[in-house]
Amino acid sequence: MKKNKLIDNISGLQLFQLMRFVTFLIISIVFTKSHLTRAEIGSWEMFLFLAGLMSFFWVTGIIQSLLPLYHRNRTYRKIGDNGSAKSPEIFNAFLLLCFFSLLIFFLGHVIKYNFSVFNYTGNDPFLNLLLLYILLSNPVCLIEYIYLLNNRSYRIFQYGLYTFLAQLVLVIAPILLEKDIMWSVYGLLAITAVRWIWLVILLRTYTDMTISLKFMKEHLYLGVPLILTSLISGSAQYTDGVIISSVYRDPAMFAWFRYGAKEFPLVLMLAGGLSSAMLPEFSTRTRMKESLAKIKVKSRRLMHICFPATMVLMLFARWLFPRMFTPEFQKSADIFLIYTLLVIPRLLFPQTVIIGRKKTHITLFAALMELGLNIPLSLLMIKWGYGLVGVALATFIVFTLGKIFLGGYLWIKMHIKPNEYTPVKLFLIYSALLGLLFVLIDHRIINIS
What we know:
By secondary structure, the protein is mostly helical. It has 21 helices and no strands.
């Protein structure tokens, strides 16, 4: 009982995402301090980048649409309709993840002779291992959500602790032993194999292994808008990069922007964890008031953590960047300062209620609206003389407008006011303080550098 009080589903998922971030951060630090060349480190980063790029959107869409469908769908109306207390929904979601993984795997093998990545092409081991990793790594993303849906919050923490520690050892040990970077890739594949064993055990324990094409159609009907939303939203950073490279055609300018165009990871992980963990709570009307009150309390706690932490980070950003990287990346700090402002829209959760109520077409429309506004606004900001900072500012404005649109939809169409799921006064006070601090730092009235 004490374990359950210490860690609930929300904090369990947040801790899991925090452990994942810390693991990859430690790996990056060890790699930069090791015998590896920048080219070898670049190959590792490209491996992870491509694996994420080719799968993040459909994995996110399938899992996010599963959460509100769990025991709340037309195919299986309630527990016991299929004669079992185990979940057929999770098993069919697993099959969808496997299908998309196989699709990317086979398409990758078909086209791998027609493109190259850092001069890797055809049957090069780099590409073959990349495709194998994509095939194996995506279905295991279901593990933490199986625990979440079965209220095994402490198991989320245990699973993350054990597997990320093992991943850390398997990936950095070869480098500490002066081995080639490919041995780290083998280590990543090895821990993925361990996760697969873990996944199979969970599937046998918690799922009814019956195939339902009807449920898969229902799942995809809800999930496809989320897949497209994730693809469009996730492409925003790439869109900004394309704009910068097209307008300036200067690799140095592009590097300055890319190094600064990063959100505060703590905010991303905590906000994302809260949103995902709360999705099942909104799947039924009978618990709406309780769920709205719960997300309001949880977001209040989050604000007390994320806003002060962001303020501290803003104060030291210009001091930190040239020391973390090199003095020539001082300009990146100005871009990063604007990206830290994204904590303001990130801590609003209208999308959680909307997705939980299965109105996924609304989030898709919002994502399309954001993309449609971001490009012309970025170009206008550059034209008006704001340069790289203008592109970052356009991203902040557009993302904020997207959250306002979703909040407006909840208020007008679903009659859910902002103060029902957001501590509005606290949010406005923190946002005003953060905005004031940004102005003082931007005008160098406060200058720690």
